[in-house]
Design goal:
This protein is α+β, with helices and mostly antiparallel strands. The protein contains nine helices and 15 strands. It has two domains: 286 residues, Zn peptidases (Aminopeptidase); 109 residues, Alpha-Beta Plaits (2-Layer Sandwich), CATH 3.30.70.360.
Length: 407
């Protein structure tokens, strides 16, 4: 891949949507963002570059919100028609890049390993397309910071800028699918992401005299084992769920029984009911096992993000947008259950919406795990994402306006 921007791989299906000049500027933006990634809540230069890129496309009604976030307003044809929002996230991860791309990260230890460089760029692209061919109502294009730490969406919501939004759409690049393939389906698209912390308090003693202790390590080990029965014995087998213990810390020396042990982990579920059941049963099980081992344990749940469950109506709007832009053959099923989280779910607690997976593997390319040092999204996904999201805003705005007239 060369750094010269004369080799733009515009996917044929959307080539007519972009002039060569617009395509070149979007690719330049993407490569610039990729080269200069910033961590959650530190996306200052990223935000400045996005403001400049939007301005270069004539979009200047841009509010700076939630610290490093932006909300750009693209006027619709009828200012009284329903407002639709599009969301692109903009933050990077603490990973050292090893892609070998000519526009690899120059910020040591930081990398766009989740494709948010492409999400930010396709959001600019969508704003450009909507400025050229507007939706019925205004479209708010949200550039959201801090998706990776799970609290950027909440901060955008708390800014109040989305108060009058009737529907929101967003997407994620996905190398399991080729450029041009898009998942726009109803149902679970991402899992909830609650965390837990378990403090086991016992009584320390000499390692040679365990009968004088209340051993928190043995109790914590029993808790880890017992937690495996939550998904296998408590949850309906038809429901996906995960309980993972990620850290287990206790002790200072081989001949000392400590007085404390600490576990942390994550709970994943794709329905609100499963999420509620797993978090409730986890705390009860920990208390019971601790009592059996003569120690006490406190469980602290960290409020994570909810699951994304795309509602039928919004998914059908998104699917229509995909069909309009790419044809029906572009629609592919997710084909698996995604237990990863995505804080787009937080918007969907306040407004209806749909989250898409947008193919980002070049033809003949291989699947590369997101959040790994070798990850990147194929550039063509930028244009697909821009065109599909812009069209989703148009279809949603028209559909919701029609529904309002007839109701
Ligand atoms: Ni991501």
């Amino acid at each position: 891949m060369s750094t010269a921007i004369d080799d733009i791989a515009l996917p044929p299906a959307v080539a007519s949507h972009f002039s060569q000049d617009a395509a070149r500027r979007l690719v330049e933006l993407r490569r610039d963002l990729h080269r200069h990634p910033e961590l959650s809540w530190q996306e200052k230069e990223t935000a400045n570059k996005l403001v400049a890129a939007l301005a270069s496309f004539g979009i200047t009604d841009v509010a700076r919100v939630a610290g490093t976030g932006l909300v750009a307003r693209v006027p619709g044809r009828d200012r009284s028609a329903p407002i639709v929002a599009l969301r692109g996230d903009i933050d990077a991860l603490p990973i050292t890049e090893s892609t070998g791309l000519p526009f690899s990260s120059e910020n040591a230890g930081i990398m766009h390993a989740c494709g948010h460089d492409v999400h930010a760029s396709w959001a600019v692209g969508a704003a450009h397309l909507l400025a050229a061919s507007p939706a019925s109502g205004d479209v708010l294009v949200v550039f959201q910071p801090a998706e990776e730490v799970g609290d950027g969406a909440r901060a955008i919501l708390e800014s109040g800028t989305l108060a009058n939004v009737a529907a929101i759409f967003g997407g994620h690049v996905d190398r399991r699918f080729e450029v041009g393939q898009v998942v726009a389906q109803a149902g679970a698209l991402a899992a909830s992401t609650d965390t837990f912390e378990i403090e086991v308090a016992g009584a320390g003693a000499h390692g040679a005299r365990p009968h004088e202790s209340a051993d928190p390590i043995v109790a914590a080990a029993a808790i880890v084992t017992a937690l495996q029965a939550l998904v296998s014995r408590r949850l309906d087998p038809a429901q996906p769920g995960v309980v993972t213990v990620g850290t287990f810390n206790a002790g200072t020396a081989s001949n000392i029984i400590p007085d404390r042990a600490r576990l942390t982990g994550t709970i994943r579920a794709t329905t609100v009911a499963a999420r509620t059941l797993l978090t409730r049963e986890l705390a009860a099980l920990v208390t019971g096992v601790a009592a059996a081992y003569g120690v006490s344990a406190t469980t602290t749940l960290g409020g994570g993000t909810p699951p994304i469950v795309n509602p039928e109506r919004m998914a059908s709007i998104a699917a229509r947008a995909v069909t309009n832009v790419l044809g029906e053959a572009a629609l592919v099923p997710l084909g698996t259950t995604n237990m990863g989280g995505e804080d787009f779910a937080v918007y969907m607690e306040s407004m209806p919406g749909c989250f898409l997976r947008i193919g980002a593997r070049e033809p003949g390319g291989r699947v590369i795990a997101a959040h790994s040092p070798g990850y990147y999204a194929a550039e063509g996904a930028l244009f697909i994402g821009a065109a599909v999201l812009a069209e989703a805003a148009r279809v949603a705005s028209a559909t919701l306006a029609g529904a309002r007239e007839t109701s």
